[in-house]
Amino acid sequence: MSSFHKKSDSQYSIKGTKLKNNLPYISSGIPSLDHIIGGGLPSGAIFAVEEDLLGSYSRVLTKYYLAEGVTSEHALFIASADEDPHIIVNELPQPCTDLPKEVAPKEGNVEMKIAWRYEGLGQVESSFGSNSLFGHNFDLSKNMDKETVQNRNITYCFLNEDEYGNKDKVKGFKNYMFFKLLTEIKDLVSKEEFHTSGKNKNILRISIQSLGSPIWLAADCDENINSDYGQDLIKFLYTLRLILRDTLAVAFITVPSHLFDDEHLMPRLLYSIDNAVRIESFAGSSRETNPVYSDYHGLFHVTKLSAIYSLVPYVPPSLDLAFKLRRKKFVIEKLHLPPELQESSEREQDDITAVPKSVGCGGFKKKDIDF
Amino acid sequence: MATDIISALELDKENIHSRILVVKEINNCSSSFITSCVLGHLIKKKSAVLIISTHNSIKHYQNVGLKMNYNLNRCIDDGLVQFYNFGEEYVDKLLKNEYISVEQIYQNITDKIEYMRKKYNVVNVIFDGVSHLLDMYYNIKEINLICSKIIELIREYNSLLICHFNVASEHDLTHVLANFLSHKAFMVVEVENLASGWSSDVSGHLTIKYPGKKFDNEHMHSLEIKPAQYLFKLFDRGVKLLAPGTV
């Protein structure tokens, strides 16, 4: 037997992680999302989600991320200025224990053969990460046991407006909330268990909800001159990037970029962010009723992918992505047009004059039509 | 695999001294591959380098370097390379409610260069993530001052300076900052992600402009020198430059 052992296996034996480019990766709680961003969220990096207009789907993504952390026994840090972070923890979905059973072929059923001319073609994979063993699926209809959640190492940080009165305490930020959050994160990250070289290593999952919402940027709007709008936010994200770098902490932040007053702000923030995606929900838009998108709940855009500890950034399998939310799954798929639109007649009157069965030979009656 | 980049940047020529290279990152493209390639080249030539970093960590360059056949940590131990993690210093001070003045930044950089010059005649400087100084709330005037002073040092010691700027968008302050320094540059390198998204065949566009050659004899009678345009493809162990239209 060879005396050589792969060093990496023993070095990163943290539950719920896998190693890529000498860096531990964790699951976002959505296998298809992990697949399109290159295998998961790298440790020591910031992952940002640009929220949908109503913020409902980005909230679901946060729940999955935290639920995956609870399932993998990672430490959690949950911060929010808009609502008490205890609320979202009470809503975490339960992991699905039963795996989808494979359908057994019926007896006497001859296996189908592919025509020879299509045999050489690669298999079309429109739904990503379905075969992945990394990460879990969660059932949104059931909440996680309170006991399981309580047993985990969770730190809450509810930043309310009272902090705003402390703005003169710090030089670096106009809004004290940014400073407070940074110091709390720094204190937590400096613990030995979140160092790459420490003993009893564990992952720290940081979640910041709606970073940059009006509560965060209130101080920027006070000023008459709007030249440094969002400066605190830019500085915060850059500082967060440096605090997390080369540690075992991962930040998952949701940003309501559609609320920003300045269109230059998001591109500036993206420089400090490592990986970013944007959710475009159909809810409330004209696309909701468009038959082309009838199978989906919204579009999913990959905005930025970084190469950490490597030269080559991951190239996603497709850039036309759409998502749908099922009870037990959040699926991101390659956007396909439906094979055929719903049956429609060429001329409108054809439909109207068609004789309904109940009407008999009496012909068409106006009252039978439901508008 | 780094030879394409080195020859495109004309670093393989004999007289590369007192040169300023400005690298602009457009459309969220990362230019860290240029730093890694140049580092490999300078280490091979036993030429000393000071890396001032605000964006990427030393571990990133170390991991990439190992794949590209050089050990950065060993070079740091030997004193050939020095890594000044300015970003970390800034954050430490910020969280202690302190502030680093422009003079202090410049002094720190000068001290490090002077220290290296005791052993090496030529000390090259790579400044990674100059645009982050804007994030730290230094204004354009202050950043320009820092860069100008580093340029003075470089000219004095006949070295090479590479500055990396991120351009967030065309009408942004980051673009203005990058353009300021481009006027002083010998060569401006623009790296840009594909506008249509990602591709497995090509990683992005690379355009090289030559403001420093404007007054060369051969270009004296042309209004503007034609920029060199390439496509680049990143690999685990290096970069390949391709002519446009060949992929």
Task: Give a brief rundown of this model.
In chain A, helix 7 (about 175-190) runs parallel beside helix 9 (about 230-245) and helix 9 packs parallel to helix 10. Chain A has helices at about 5-10, 30-35, 55-70, 85-90, 115-120, 145-150, 175-190, 220, 230-245, 265-270, 350-355; strands at about 15-20, 25, 40, 45-50, 75-80, 95, 140-145, 155-160, 205-210, 250-255, 275-280, 300-305, 320-325, 330-335. Chain A is about 25% helix and about 20% strand.
Largest interface: A-B, 41 and 43 residues
Indicate the radius of gyration of chain B in whole angstroms.
Answer: 18 Å
Corresponding CATH superfamily of chain B: P-loop containing nucleotide triphosphate hydrolases
Rg of chain A is: 25 Å
Structural class of chain A: alpha/beta
The geometry of chain A reads as globular
Mean pLDDT reading of chain B: 91
Proportion of beta-strand residues of chain B: 15-25%
Distance between the termini of chain A: 78 Å
H and E string of chain B = HEHEHHEHHEHHEHEEEE
Unreliable sequence segments of chain B: none
N-to-C order of helices and strands of chain A: HEEHEEHEHEHEHEHEHHEHEEEEH
Task: Tell me about this structure.
The complex is a heterodimer of chains A (371) and B (247). Chain A is of the alpha/beta class and 371 residues long. In chain A, 24% of the residues lie in helices and 19% in strands. In chain A, strands 8-5-9-10-4-11-12-13-14 form a nine-stranded mixed β-sheet, with helices on both faces. In chain A, helix 7 (176-189) packs parallel to helix 9 (231-244) and helix 9 (231-244) runs parallel beside helix 10 (265-272). The longest helix of chain A is centred in the first third of the chain and has 16 residues, at 56-71. With 247 residues, chain B is an alpha/beta fold. Chain B has a single domain, classed as 3-Layer(aba) Sandwich (Rossmann fold). In chain B, 38% of the residues lie in helices and 24% in strands. Chain B is built from nine helices and nine strands. Chain B has helices spanning 3-8, 32-44, 58-67, 72-78, 86-95, 102-117, 132-135, 140-157, 173-182; strands spanning 19-26, 48-53, 81-85, 123-128, 160-167, 187-193, 204-209, 228-235, 238-242. Chain B has a nine-stranded mixed β-sheet, with helices on both faces. In chain B, helix 6 (102-117) packs parallel to helix 8 and helix 8 packs parallel to helix 9. The mean pLDDT of chain B is 91. Chains A and B meet through helix 7, helix 9 and helix 10 of A and helix 2, helix 3 and helix 5 of B.
